[in-house]
Every structure is written in structure tokens, then in C-alpha cells.
Amino acid sequence: xxxxxxxxxxxxxxxxxxxxxxxxxxxxxxxxxxxxxxxxxxxxxxxxxxxxxxxxxxxxxxxxxxxxxxxxxxxxxxxxxxxxxxxxxxxxxxxxxxxxxxxxxxxxxxxxxxxxxxxxxxxxxxxxxxxxxxxxxxxxxxxxxxxxxxxxxxxxxxxxxxxxxxxxxxxxxxxxxxxxxxxxxxxxxxxxxxxxxxxxxxxxxxxxxxxxxxxxxxxxxxxxxxxxxxxxxxxxxxxxxxxxxxxxxxxxxxxxxxxxxxxxxxxxxxxxxxxxxxxxxxxxxxxxxxxxxxxxxxxxxxxxxxxxxxxxxxxxxxxxxxxxxxxxxxxxxxxxxxxxxxxxxxxxxxxxxxxxxxxxxxxxxxxxxxxxxxxxxxxxxxxxxxxxxx
Length: 390
What we know:
By secondary structure, the protein is mostly helical. Helix content is about 50%, strand content about 5%.
């Protein structure tokens, strides 16, 4: 086995004069999250983080786990830390067994209550995994199966809206693009890394992903063609910039001195400094980040500049502001529900600072032709996708 989580086997073909050895490389992946795996644990091939997670959380008498999204979260290497309930559920589904734990001291006979709670939710509740709703109540939101809590201040309609908004933006696609870029660059000689062509392709790909916030949003589609075109033109550059910062902060590329210096040479020091500040202000809660981007998509602010073209305004600014107000209230109620009032205030304050920082980064970068060309191409593609005319 090599250091990359691969198993190397060999087939020997023996003749009277030579021995031919064929090497086969088998990639080993964690059955829970898909990361590189090096060994099996309690009967299942798993990575070290998932091994330690199962060991900590599968024991009896641990603090109850909860899932905010009905126990149906996708678990992979990028989001495995988001939902402990669904991660533990996948551990059991992959075949991990508490009966195979090696006890360090004499213990009483364990039962299999927790595994039964995950596999068959109609059985008695386990104290390891606790859902947020009573089994006697009907399923309210089949789109995301978000379950109500007695302490929630969100209405059924707001839970539905939350479900729809967080599915508008696919961050995992951006994570994969950034991870692939990092892997490709690390495989190149030092002098060949982070050239303009590869950097521009990365930023363009990450920024283009933000148009999904418009494509899949029913409130946006309900607006007039004029107002949709206006929002695409005015908002996409901000959404693309902050969305790219969100992805880059997650994969830690801004912490790479070579990547940062190369980006600085293309887009300028002021733009990159503001971009890094934006990264530092992005919330750790992915759901709130998506809500923040949705709010920004319907904002009406813009930097002031002078051109020879005629100024265009929204036809129905009241409708746009109503949508923005609705999203702001939803984000606030979500934060209060999940974290409490104090954390909600801090998160919203950081969101406002993040938007201002992202605006500053955009204003600085717009002075560079490379950036304006990229933004123009992104807007043109978005309008073609949404069948909008200028």
C-alpha cells in the first residue's frame, strides 16, 4: 500500500526463462465519505476521521444527535462534518458495528438500539440519534423533509422556501473544480504553476456557478424580463465574486502564497486584499451563506460609474424589495432557531461586512480588463441560458 490510499497488487507470470510482473493499482476509498482509506475498522474500510467519528459517537450514553434536514443529508469528503446524525447513519449503513469495539475495561452487555433507531425509525427512540419531530405527525415538506421543532419560529411556508433556496446553489460543484485545480497545479513544476490561463479558467468557472441562484429561483422567474435582465447585469458580478471567495476559503487556496501572488498579479493587490477580507468574513454555516447569496441576488445597491449608455432602472422595484425582505426575514429566523439571538446578530453583522468587502473587491477588480472580460462573458452566458434580451 502506498501513501495515497492505494493498494498495489501483483500478478506473476512464470516461464522457464523470465518472470513477468504486472502491477495493478486499486484505489481504496472510505465507505462513509469517499476519502482515501488506509485500513478497515470494525469490519468496514474507512478513513481515519470517520473511524474516530464512529468511535466517539456510536458509544452508548453519548449526547443525542439531531438532523435538521430529516435524516437525508448527503455525506461526502466536503460536507461530512455538517451533519453528525446522517454521518453516523451512513456508518451503520456501511456495515460498521459497535459489537466489534475492543473494550478497554469490563463493560456491561451492549444492545443494538442505536443501529435499530437509524435503520428502522419506527422502533423505540435511541438516545444516540434523535429526530426533531414526533413520528405521529405527517411529513410536511417532501422536497427537503425538514422536520419541525417545537422551538422553531419558522412557518411551514418558510421551511419550504428555505428548502428551495438552499437547493438553488450547488457549492459541491465548485469544491470539485477547486480541488481538481489544486491537484493539477501541484503536479506541475514550480515555474509552470498558477499561470494566467489556468487562473482565469478557475475564477471564471467559480463565478459562473453563481448564475444558478437565478436559474432555479421561482421568485426571480416570476419577475418581468426587463427586471430579470437588470438583476443579472447588476448583481451577477457581486454574486460571482463572493461565491468564488466562499469556494476558495473552503479549500484554503487563498492561504497558498503562490496562488495568492499569481492572482494579485492578474487582478491587482487592492482587489485581492479585499477578496481575502471577504473570505475571512464568510460564515461557517453553509445554509446561511446560501441565504446570504440569495439576499444579495435581489439587492438594489451598485457602485457608481459613468458611461455613455442610458441608465436603466427596475420596472417593479417594490416586488424586488419584497423578495429581498422575505429572504432577510427567513435568514434571521433560521439563525435564531439554530443558534439563538446573540449568534444571529453576529452572523448578520458579518454578512453585511462581507457584502461591503465583496463590493470593494469588485470595484477594484473592475479596473482590470481581464476581469471585465470575464464578467461580460459570464453575464452574456447567463442571459443566453435564461433567454433574456438586453
